Amino acid sequence: MCAKATMEEFEALLNESFDIDTPDEGSVVKGRVIAIEAGQAIIDVGYKMEGRVDLKEFANPGEEPSIKVGDEVEVYLDRVENARGEASISREKARREEAWDRLEKAYADEERVEGAIFGRVKGGFTVDLGGAVAFLPGSQVDVRPVRDAGPLMGLKQPFQILKMDRRRGNIVVSRRAILEESRAEQRAEVIANLTEGQVVDGVVKNITEYGAFVDLGGVDGLLHVTDMAWRRVNHPSEILAIGETLKVQVIKINKDSHRISLGMKQLQADPWDTVGDKFPIGSVHQGRVTNITDYGAFVELEAGVEGLVHVSEMSWTKKNVHPGKIVSTSQEVEVMVLEIDEAKRRVSLGLKQTQRNPWEVFAETHPSGTVIEGEVKNITEFGLFVGLEGDIDGMVHLSDISWDARGEDAIQDFRKGDVVKAVVQDVDVEKERISLSIKSLENEHMAEAVDGVKRGSVVTVEVTAIEDGGIEVEYNGVKSFIRRSDLARDRQDQRPERFQVGDKVDARVTNIDTKTRRLGLSIKAREIAEEKEAIDQYGSSDSGASLGDILGAALNRSN
């Protein structure tokens, strides 16, 4: 009976010992390193249980394992006994479980965690957070894109947990958030020590099309391209280089957004302070074309002072031409100052004013009545445009082309490129118009043709055409028309058909109109005048002699 009680007590003590000393599978237990052999650590986890763990599980990424016999470590117990009769344990799993507990607490408290980047994966990097592996997206590595992440590999540094899911084993961290927070603190400290108008040293960190970012010692300021120099700067790289140290003035500080505007030209004298003295209105200066637009060209008079030559002030003659066809960039030109607005910092310049108005010159050298010669530049429905000296045009209106033909018909005889002569009728300098006349040339020819001829004179003409209403004749190149009623005194002889083209006929001049280029002729008037003269000289109507007798006697006398 006593022996039986003793056995029961022993069994109870044994079971109690098992319950106390035997750890549960799937838990983290403490053990002691009792030996290191064949790249493994043999660890006693209690109750006569030993397990093996690869040494690499005791090493941080990129480091050698630091473990020795006698060290106490925590391991994860997978199974109490494996096929070899040993405990199946893992240091890596123990670290992971420990890390997840620690990281969950840090995530809940929004605390930073320490880790090291040890690998590159698609879209980012892997980070060891002391046993747990996290994903670091490429966009969260730095505040600016990182081209070479080599210097960051294996380096222990703080990270911020953005998201974590223990069930799926996902952790996403950010290094950028830490940097931005640090930069914000540093920026706030630097900005607190800056004042507007202060001159500071900075280093050019980045260059863009619109300016350059300058590092002022932990905070960046923007140096806009318009604040780099008083003169026009097409691109910041013309005067700046990355890494260059320069002096800048703090123009504006935005305390809320922590944005700083910088300037370089503010440290130099403003050339506009002396513009009025250097460039008085009406003065002519040499300048360089810096920019060409649809509405004109900008000309630099000196560094920092530019003026606009409006397209309407570029040429006297080229009205609807793009400025780029008159001047070119970097060309040296002579301009006149037309207007200065110092408040708006604007100078209006003129290019054509440096040359004489070609219409004024033409008016001086070609008064009304001057005969000119030019090429037909254009033909329109209302006249001809003829090229003249000074690259200007004169116009011959339809009504000034010909005396004999309608203007619409006469203009058909002309083509572009024809060289014609015309008479200057009028020059309007203000309206830039020159009126020409081709038919006025014929007036001059008529004046020469009828020189010495007076009203009542008898001239010999040549028949050039026969019509029902009369005959067309020509005298020294001047054409005229004798009506049927003026072909003879006697009615029965007033027949155009009794004449032939080429006949020479004497006719009396009844009218001379140089304006209309008309010469009035009459055969009838000549015959009546001759009869009257004969009667006056050789008889009278009362003498009884017939007209035939009188004319016969007159003819015999003249013979």
TrEMBL record:
GO terms for biological process: translation. The keyword Ribosomal protein applies. GO terms for molecular function: mRNA binding; structural constituent of ribosome. Keywords: Repeat, Ribonucleoprotein, Ribosomal protein, RNA-binding. InterPro entries: NA-bd_OB-fold, Ribos_protein_bS1-like, Ribosomal_bS1, Ribosomal_protein_S1-like, S1_domain. Pfam families: S1. One of its GO terms (cellular component) is cytosolic small ribosomal subunit. PROSITE patterns: S1 (PS50126). Residues 26-92, 110-176, 197-265, 282-352, 369-439, 456-524 form the S1 motif domain. The keyword tRNA-binding does not apply. Belongs to the bacterial ribosomal protein bS1 family. Binds mRNA; thus facilitating recognition of the initiation point. It is needed to translate mRNA with a short Shine-Dalgarno (SD) purine-rich sequence. This is 30S ribosomal protein S1. It comes from Paracoccus haematequi.
